Amino acid sequence: MDYESEFIELPGEANPLSRDNLIRNLALGAGRSAGTNDLQTATKQLQEWESQSQFYVHLQAVFMDQDLPFEVRYLAILQLLNAVINKHAWGRASTQGVNAYDKQRIRSQLLVASYREPDDRLARQNALLTAKIVRSDFPREWPNVFDDLNATIGGGFDHQNPIHLLQMRRALELLQIIVKELSKASLKLSTLRQKAPELLEPVHHIFQSCSERFINISDANFSIDDTNALGLLVPTAGIIRRILVRGYQFPHRDELAVRVFQNVSLFWLARAQQQHPAGSGETSSSMKALEKVLLQLAKMHLELAEDNPVAFVSFPGSAQLQSTYFDLIRRFAETYGSSFASVGRKQRDGSLSDNQPSLVEKLVLRGILLLRATLRAMSDPNAIRARTDVEKEQKEQVVRVLHSEFFPPTMVQNLLEIIVSKYFVFTASDLQRWEDEPDEWEAAEGGDTEGYRFSVRLSAEKLFLDLVMRFTEAIVPSIISLAHITMSNPSIGAIQKESVYTALGLAADKIFVHSEKNEPRYNFNDSLPPLITDLQNRDPSYRLVRRRIAILIGKWVHIQLSKENRPLVYQIFLHLLDKSDELNDLVVRVTAGRQLKEIISDWEFEVQPFLHYAPDLISRVMNLITEVELPETKMALLETISSIVEQMGRHIAPFADHIVALLPSLWDETGDETLRKQVIVTLLVNMFSSMGTESKQYQEFALFIINAVLSPESNLAELERMALFADALDLWRAVLDNIPNMTASELHPELLRLLKTSLIPALGMDSEARRVALEIASSYFLLIPAEFLSEQSFIVELLRSQAPDLRTLKPEASAQVFEVVEQLLRAAEELNGAQGVQTVADALVESGFMQELFGGLKEAYDAHQTTGPKAIVSNVQGQVETDFFSILARILYTSPEIFLSTIQSPATGLGVDINATMNWLLEEWFSHTQELVTDPPRQKLMTMALTHLFTTGEPYSLGRLQQLMDLWVSVIESLTEGSEDKNKDSLVYTPPSGPFEASEGQSAGEARRASLQSADPVHNVNLKDLVKYAVGVVIQKCGGPERFQEEWLVNVDKEVVEQFGRLGVV
C-alpha cells in the first residue's frame, strides 16, 4: 500500500481509527513527503485518536511490523513511549484511552518485540518502554516479567544460530535498561534488591563464558565469535554493575555478590595490566565494545567506592584493584602532559592527535576519582554511616585497612610526586586550545570547575588537595622544599615552575598553618622577588608562569601578604594586564583580571595605597571587557570592577561614567542569563553606594532595570523575573538611599510611578523581599514625608498588606514590619504633630492593622491567664509583643485622646467597653514592660507613654498607681545608674546645632533616618522631668496633694512610696 499518497483531511467520523489510517497518519507525521499542512493535520488526528480504545494497541502493532518503513515504526514506538513517560496513558491519573485489557495486550508483546527486533535503534526504544512499564506495573499487574526474562537468559542457546544470539542479546539489553530504571527510583530499590540474586546468577554465568576469550587477546583481529560474545558481554557488564552497586545494601556480606565482584574484577585486572587494555591497532566497533565493558567495570568500582565504601574495601582484592589503578596512573603519567614546543602539532586532517581521550586516560580518570573516594572514606568521619554497633565496629576496621593497605606512606609520596610533576602539566591539546580558543579555554579553566570529573588534570588537583588535607605533615614539607628549590634555580623550565606554583597555591592554607609551628618554613612575602624575576623572563613558554603567578597571588593574598608588599602586587597586576607586552596574551590578561578581584576584596585592603594604581588597573580591565567575546568572561571581569567600585567608595568618581556607560550594552547581551543580569545589578548597587548623592546621572538606567523586573507589564519570563526580583529591590533601595534631600517635584517621575505601581506587590513577597520593600517604603516617607502622608489611601493599602500576618510573624520579621510603622508615626509627628499621628492612626484602623494588633495583645493576655498542662501559648510574646506595644506607645505618648479614639474600634470588635478594655490592656502592658522589656530605649518609651496616660486622671490609670510608681523607680534608676548627676537621663542626647548632615560613610538615606532618631522624644525628654510634670498635673486634677493622698496614694505600698521619694521627683 502507498502510505505516502496524497492525504485528504476528513471529518472525525469519516476518518476512523484503523490500522491503515494510523499508518498513513504516522507516515505523514514522520515527515515522509508531507507538507506543513499535512503534517499539522496528521499530528492533530493522532492526538484525537489518543483517547480511543485500541489506539496504543495499534501503535504497538505498527511498530512490530518489520515490513513498514523505519520512520513510521520509530514514530509509533515514540508515541507509545511518550504516553507512558508522561503518564498520559499508563499512570494512575491517565486521561487517555488505555483500559486494562489494552494494557495486558501491550505487555504481552513487549518482550517478543524486543527479541525479534533487528534494528538497534528501535530495540532500544522498545526496551525503554518496557522498563517504564515494569517500573509501573511490577509486581501487581505484571508479576511474571522477570521469570520470563530469566527463562530466556538462563536457558541454553546456540552460539551459531543468529536468531538465538539476537534473542539473547536483546534479552540482556532489555534487562540492563530495566535494572537501570529500577535503580534510579528509591521506592523501587526494594524490588531490585528482592530480584538481585536470581538475576545476578545467570548474568554472571554469561559474563564468565563470554569474557574468557578476551583475557589475553592482544590484537584487533576479532573473529565473528568474538564480536558475538562482545554483544553479550557489554550488557552483562552493565547489569552486574548496577546490581552490585544498587541491588544490595551490603553486597560484601552476600556470597554470590562477592564471587561475582571477584570474577569480573579479575577480568578487569587482566585487561587493565596489559599495555593496550582494549587491543592494539585501528579502532573498530569490537574494540569499542571491549572498551565499554572495561569502563562499565571501572565505573562499578568507582560507584562502590563513593556510595558504599565499606562494601568496596571489604571485597577481597579491592586493595589490589586500587594498586592497579595507581599503576595505571603512574604508567599514563609518562606520556601525559607536554612540552611547550609540542603546541601546534596536528594530524594531517588538522585535528589534534590527543584531542580525544583514550581508554587508558578514561580508566586513569576513574582511578583518580576512586583514590579520592577511598581517601575520603578514611579521612571524613561522615563518609561512612554507621548506626548499629556492628556497623560502627566494621567502620573502624575499614579505616584501619585503608590506612595500612590502601595508602601506605611510599604510595602517598609517589602519588604526590606524580601529580605535581606530571598531572599538573598542560597537555598539548590544552595548549593548542589556549592558542586557538583563548576565550573559551580561559573560561573553562578560570570559571566553574565542577567539570573536574571529566578532566584528568582537574581531578588530579582535587586529589592533591585531599592528600594535603589528610597527610599534611608528610606532604607539606615536600611542597615547601620544592618551592624553595624552584624559586632559587633559574635553570628550571616554565612547565615545571607552573606545576610547582600550582601546588603552592592549592596547598596555601595548610602550608601557612604548618609554617607557623614547624620546619621548613615558608613566607609568601619572600617569594615575591623570584616571582618578579619570572615575570621578566621573555621566553614564550613563560606565559604559563605568568597566568599561574596571578592565580598564586590571588590565593595567598587572603593568607599572608604584608601591607608593605601590596603596592608591589598592584604593580605586578598592572604588568600582567599590559596588552602591549606580547607575552600577556588574552588568557594571561583575563586570568589577571579575574584574580584582581581577590586582591581588591581582601579583608585588609586599604584604599589610599591603591589610588595611585587605580586609573591604569581600572582602564585595562574595562578595555579587556570590550575585548573578550564570551558573555560569562565579561561578567567575571565586571565582578572585578564591581569589587573595585565597592571598595573605593567616592574615589571611584573619575571612572564611574565610563563604567556605567558599558552596562546597557552588556545588559542587552545577557539575553535570558539571569546570573549575568545579577552581576550588572550588583555593580549598579555598589556604584550608587559609592557615589552617594553624586549618582543622580545613573538613575535612568537603574530605573529601567527596576521597571523591567518589577513592573506588572514586565517582558521578562516569570522565572527570570522572580530570580531578579530581590536584586531589583536592592537597586531601588540604593537609588532612594543616595538621593539628597529634595521635594517630590524634583524626583525622577519614574520613582513616583514605581511607588504607586510596584511597592504594594513587593510587600506581599517572601520575607527577604518584604524586608527590602519595607525599607523602600521607609525611604520614601523620610525623603518626601508631606507627599507620602498626603496619600491616605496608599498608606492604608501599605498597612493592609502587612496586617494579615501580624500575629504569626517570627521576631525578626515582626521587628522589620513594626520598625517601619513606628518610623511612619514618627515622621508624621515631625511633619504635622498630633494631626499627622491622627492621620496614620486612622489608616491603622481602616487597614485592619490595629484590629490585628489589638487582637494579638488580647490573645497574649488571655494566654497569660492560663496555667498548667492546658495553658494557652500565644505567638504574640517576648519581642513580638514589645513590637505591638511600641506602636500603641507612640500614639499614646503623642496624644492620649488619639490613642483612646484609635483603640475604640478594635475594643468594640472584642465586645467590651473602653473601661474593661483598658483594664486588661494595662494589666498586660505593665506586666510585659516590667518583666520582659530589657532594651532601655523601649523601656523608656513604654514608661513615657504610660506616664502620659496617667495625666488623664482616668480611674483605670490612677488605679494602677503602684505599678506605675514601681515602673518609674525601676526605669529612672537604670537611666541614672553610674552618673553622679541623678537628674541626668542617659538616653537624652544633645541635639545637633543646625541641619542634620550625613557623616562620612553615611548615605543620604541613613542620614535622614539618623535625623529622625535624633528628634525622638526618647532622646530629647528627660524621664524624671516628665514624671515630675505628670504627677503635678494629676495632683492638681485630684484637688490637691491631700485628696491625691487620700484617694490614690494610700493604695500604694509604703516601700514603693519610699523608693519613689528617694528619686527626688517631688
Automatic annotation (TrEMBL):
GO terms for cellular component: cytosol; nuclear envelope. SUPFAM superfamilies: ARM repeat. GO terms for molecular function: small GTPase binding. Keywords: Nucleus, Transport. GO terms for biological process: protein import into nucleus. It is found in: Nucleus. Residues 42-111 form the Importin N-terminal domain. Residues 982-1013 are annotated as: Disordered. InterPro entries: ARM-like, ARM-type_fold, Importin-beta_N, TPR_IPO7/11-like. Belongs to the importin beta family. This is Importin N-terminal domain-containing protein.
